[in-house]
Amino acid sequence: MIEENLPDGYWVEAFQVDNKNSVGLVAYGLSSGDIYLYENVSTIKASGKRTLIQKLDGPVAMDQADITGNGMNDIIICFQYGNTMLDTDPEGGKIVWLENPGQNIDKKQWKMHYVGKSTAMHRLKVGHFTQTKRWEIIGLPIVGKPYDLLSPVPVILFRQPDNIYDATEWPHEIINQQFFHLIHDAKQFNDNQLDNLLIASSEGINWLYFNQNLRQWTIKHIGDGEQEQKQQTTYYGSGGIDMGRVGNDSFAYMPAVEPFHGNVISVYTKNENNSSEQAPRKRYVLDIYGNPNENGEGPAHHLVCADFDKDGDDEFLVALRGPSPNQGVYFYKPIDISRGLFAKWKVSDDSAARIAVADFDNDGFLDFATISYNVPGYYTAENPSINIFYNRFAQQMLPDKNEIQVLKQNNDLLFKVPRPNKALQYQELPFITMNGVVFSLAIVPPHSSRQVDNNTYIKVMDGIIMWTDSSKGSHQRVTQSRQLLSEPRTVVTLEIHSENQRIRTGNEGALLMIFKTPGNINDAQKIDDMKKVIIDNSLPESYPEDTRQLDFQFIRYDKLDSSAHFKDLEFYNMKGFRIDFIDNDEHICYIQLWAAGQGVNAGVHNHEKNTFCEVHVCIINGSGKGGMHYLNSSKEVYNPLTTPDSAFEQLVLPTFYEHGPLWDIDAQNKPVLRNDSTVVYPWHKWQAGINTSFNESFDIWVVFEFNSQLAILSASNQSTLPLPNESKQTFIPNMLNTFIAILIVYIHY
């Protein structure tokens, strides 16, 4: 949820200030008139970050364009509407453009520049409708004059003047004054030369465009819209329209809300006898949501087409303002448009006046945002709010191009990964599964997010992740962060208690190791025999065959090291995984797994020959007492014959916990290195605990051996940050289960 308890709600639109900033939102209601810019919740680090752009009397519709030509998007908006479409303000219907202040965007309101007016101005579109050198605005009033719903509506073209700053009004002309009645919405698109409009009005769906050959405006009729309610409600025709692409056909189908503020969702498909884009189309009714109310209105208010699952075909979303049960957002997917066959499911229960579509979390998949419908005289939803719904298709599909490359290097897997701050898309790559626990490497691009749940545990290997903590049980919402290293000589959990079940990244992006358990870790079975540990190679089929055939098994360590200390010891090792950056082969870390039976000393050492910095993550703590034991100082001498166990500090690592640095750290928070670049450590070991309740119960842990040049301790680790208003919402169900629960909508004529 971005914001709740709004005074009203009507319009929401995705808005990018310039090509350097992430996509945010502009939202407002008709009554309060406060127009706010909301920054992208993936990037902000302050609570409730919104900026008042301007305050207008009854703002209705907006569009956006770089009017000034300075690379920053401005806003074009109409206002002073009146109370209702019947009781409109005869002096209103004004259009202004709001000048983007650039660097001072959060310090002052946007300057207004007058364009023109027409009573009851309800929708407007900015583009190039007759030429391509200057901006043009088409204004679409909903009615022609106050207290008159029957008169035709003028369609007006405003042309950009020579001087946009000093002009008292934009030159304008009436395109058409006789054809249209009760215009509720329009869809703008480009025919590869000029911008065109599909207009939803009492006449149904009509295509309005400027014919360059004839040098005149042309109207092509697409469909009549809803006609059966004409006697009952006096409303007929259409109230909302968009275009859906299927394959290479961008005009494959046109979904519509019908009639004005209607309850009918229909779709127009090409006629078999005439498949041209401008020909009349065959109409199918997909759904009827309830009955018209006492004002003759239904719950549907807006719809929008987009390719949400990246299969090359557009789906569409329908916004229902309410009341319940006809409230929320429905998702429609084409199955067979020649028969008007679509699948649908509900993806939100919140009142929706309009839908804004954008990739808000930068994962390569489109998300959507809604604002509740709260307009006195029509319908007022309870607790008006703004919500973002994140697309989960990204976690069900393989990416178009693998960000992570995998090679077989001897008997190891070599992963080559992009630097997270340069990653273009999210990718999560499972590579092994151990007794149901899936180990995955993940790249999360900057200003992105991904879903987490109670069975997800995350080790950060580069970058930073953030989330709103839901575990404190207090009313104060706190944002947590996690990065490569935690506080020295402490332990922290890899759990994520996220209020909206998502983590997000900032400018750095993140490289993650993700552990996904099949259930609650408290229910996990103890390992009393290493033969019961089952490890599968989980690399997808899209990766090289030799990498997928590589076998991983624990080997008892006395077969690898003949030292007397390890002879007949229940101590095991499994190699191995190397991770490098793909741009210059810079080494990040090497990963291997270890296992030890109860009471096993895994070997005291101080890395006198090692150049890496290691962090241990416990996968199973068999006794509940195992962990890292270390001497307090690297200057303390260790003698295996005389140094007692009591000299060691004990750092117990519960299941899915990691520890902070044990190595020495200098004033710059870097590892202290010897002259030969080895890392200065105190003597330390993994010491398995003893629990007499079990005859045997193994500890299993992962060791991350990081490049010492990258193992720099941050000034703040596992820190608390200011809180952004995050969305609690996600959408798009698991596609594997979609057709189990799906409703196939058979269409009637």
Automatic annotation (TrEMBL):
<dbReference type="Pfam" id="PF18637">
    <property type="entry name" value="AUDH_Cupin"/>
</dbReference>
<protein>
    <submittedName>
        <fullName>Uncharacterized protein</fullName>
    </submittedName>
</protein>
<feature type="domain" description="Aldos-2-ulose dehydratase/isomerase (AUDH) Cupin">
    <location>
        <begin position="403"/>
        <end position="707"/>
    </location>
</feature>
<dbReference type="Pfam" id="PF22301">
    <property type="entry name" value="AUDH_beta_propeller"/>
</dbReference>
<dbReference type="InterPro" id="IPR040887">
    <property type="entry name" value="AUDH_Cupin"/>
</dbReference>
<dbReference type="InterPro" id="IPR028994">
    <property type="entry name" value="Integrin_alpha_N"/>
</dbReference>
<feature type="domain" description="Aldos-2-ulose dehydratase beta-propeller">
    <location>
        <begin position="92"/>
        <end position="271"/>
    </location>
</feature>
<dbReference type="InterPro" id="IPR054583">
    <property type="entry name" value="Beta-prop_AUDH"/>
</dbReference>
